[in-house]
Amino acid sequence: MFSTSIQISNLTLINSPSWNVHPVYCSNVVVQGLTILAPVRSPNTDGINPDSCTNTRIQDCYIVSGDDCVAVKSGWDEYGIAFGMPTKRLVIRRLTCISPTSAVIALGSEMSGGIEDVRAEDITAIDSESGVRIKTAVGRGGNYGSHPDNNYDPNAIPVIQNINYRDVVAENVTMAARLEGIPGDPFTGICMSNVTISLSQNPKKLQWNCSNVAGITSEVTPKPCDLLPDQGQGKIRACNYPEDNSPIENMEVQTCSSFRNRW
Ligand SMILES: *[C@@H]1O[C@H](CO)[C@@H](O)[C@H](O)[C@H]1NC(C)=O
Ligand SMILES: *[C@@H]1O[C@H](CO)[C@@H](O)[C@H](O)[C@H]1NC(C)=O
Ligand SMILES: *[C@@H]1O[C@H](CO)[C@@H](O)[C@H](O)[C@H]1NC(C)=O
Ligand SMILES: *[C@@H]1O[C@H](CO)[C@@H](O)[C@H](O)[C@H]1NC(C)=O
């Protein structure tokens, strides 16, 4: 907690009873080359949970979890709002995840301090329930409907906007997407392009279940819901990955060799 310039690298973590790596109120965090293994039926065994952190890079990790492989957090309900420290400028790359009952990358559920500028690329998911799962609720955060106490603000509604997905290939899928905003609080600016989803032998009848969301799509199969109208071919640039670099993207990992030499 409350640390800067943290490096956690080249470790194997096995059978944690709960979240494995949980930096809170930190900045300049590099988590690299970790293997994290939990039984896939074990609850709450998230892999890596950046929580109210700025400038975090998660790279080259292999995670098997009974919960989310990466879960981005920032405080629960009125406590997260009062503290007001978002997780921002998070980069996740070259992650391989097995999460049969949960998500490869989750935002929330406790995200009351805000989450901004999360970038994920080169992600491989095997036998996982969801690719990306954004979990939130009125009161902002909360375990879907549950709250830490009765002092949460029922009028505090989350703002979910500008979520891009591109260059996604998914196989053996039972349901393309469930995109459920909050009545009176639509989730907007959703953009999907170049997404190819092949269905399983017994897929759900309703492939896109959308409510209270707005956005656009281009070159997405199967055909998305009407709330995400198809812009036609050649609009792939619409949901581009940001071109600027976060400072943490190029931070070099430090090794201990200079210490070894000295001693
Ligand atoms: C579409 O996505 C696939 C899979 O990631 C990728 O190989 C391909 O280059 C993408 N097409 C364009 C035009 O970016
Ligand atoms: C598709 O997923 C089902 C389980 O949902 C699994 O039994 C089956 O082996 C998978 N098929 C392929 C081709 O991966
Ligand atoms: C679609 O989502 C709504 C919630 O937004 C849910 O109540 C409904 O059961 C879902 N329908 C299907 C067929 O999954
Ligand atoms: C971690 O392992 C990689 C690959 O073996 C190696 O190149 C790197 O120097 C190691 N990093 C640290 C900090 O030990």
TrEMBL record:
Which Pfam families would you find in this protein's record?
Glyco_hydro_28
GO molecular function list: lyase activity; polygalacturonase activity
Q: Which InterPro entries match?
A: GH28_Enzymes, Glyco_hydro_28, Pectin_lyas_fold, Pectin_lyase_fold/virulence
Xref: Gene3D superfamilies:
Single-stranded right-handed beta-helix, Pectin lyase-like
Asked if Secreted is a keyword of the record, the answer is yes
User: GO biological process: what's one of them?
Assistant: carbohydrate metabolic process
Q: Where in the cell is it found?
A: Secreted, Cell wall
Q: Which SUPFAM superfamilies match?
A: Pectin lyase-like
Record keywords: Cell wall, Glycosidase, Hydrolase, Lyase, Secreted
The protein's matches in PANTHER family, at most eight in alphabetical order, are given as: PECTIN LYASE-LIKE SUPERFAMILY PROTEIN, PECTIN LYASE-RELATED
Family (UniProt):
Belongs to the glycosyl hydrolase 28 family.
- Name-wise, this protein is PECTIN LYASE-RELATED
Originating organism? Salix viminalis (Common osier)
